[in-house]
Amino acid sequence: MKRANFAPVYACIYPDLAEIARSHGYALAVHGSMGRDFDLACIPWVDKPSKPIDVVNEMVDTFAIKTVGEPEIKEHFRIVYTLAVKFGECFIDLSFTPSKQSITGEFK
């Protein structure tokens, strides 16, 4: 039998995280198994979405979540923030796919 994991926690917090992302102009997609961590992708869905850091800050301010380290740039210019849920060893990898503003430099 495999060890229990945090997938039920991740599933429970997804709707509220999705509403935060949506309020900033992003669709929030789940990818991965949720066995080790919670991989989420914010996809720009409006003409001018908020800056990724604004989404992250609202999630941190709303939940018992904190950022871990600095954001990283990954393949295809995704910016990825690692978030830790404070009560345990739960981690969220929150990716943002590029928006028109990030590509054209309007976020600077």
User: Which stretches are low in confidence, meaning pLDDT under 50 for 5 or more residues running?
Assistant: none
> What is the rounded Rg?
14 Å
Strand percentage lies at 25-35%
What characteristic shape results from the CA principal axes? globular
Q: Oligomeric form of this entry?
A: single chain
Q: What is the number of beta strands?
A: 5
The rounded distance between the terminal residues' Cα atoms is: 50 Å
Structural class: alpha+beta
The average pLDDT value, as a whole number, equals 91
Number of helices: 3
Strand line-up across the major sheet: 1-2-5-4-3
User: What pattern of helices and strands is seen along the backbone?
Assistant: HEEHEEEH
Describe the sheet with the most strands. 5 strands, mixed
Work out the helicity level. Answer: 25-40%
Summarize the structure.
With 108 residues, the chain is of the alpha+beta class. It is 31% helix and 33% strand.
Question: Which characteristics define this entry?
Answer:
alpha+beta, globular, 108 residues, 31% helix, 33% strand, 5 strands, 3 helices, five-stranded mixed beta sheet
What does this structure look like?
The chain has 108 residues and is an alpha+beta fold. Helices cover 31% and strands 33% of the residues. The protein contains 3 helices and 5 strands; from the N terminus they run αββαβββα. The chain has helices at 7-23, 52-62, 100-104, and strands at 26-31, 38-44, 65-73, 79-85, 90-96. It has a 5-stranded mixed sheet with strand order 1-2-5-4-3, with helices on one face. The protein is globular. The mean pLDDT is 91.
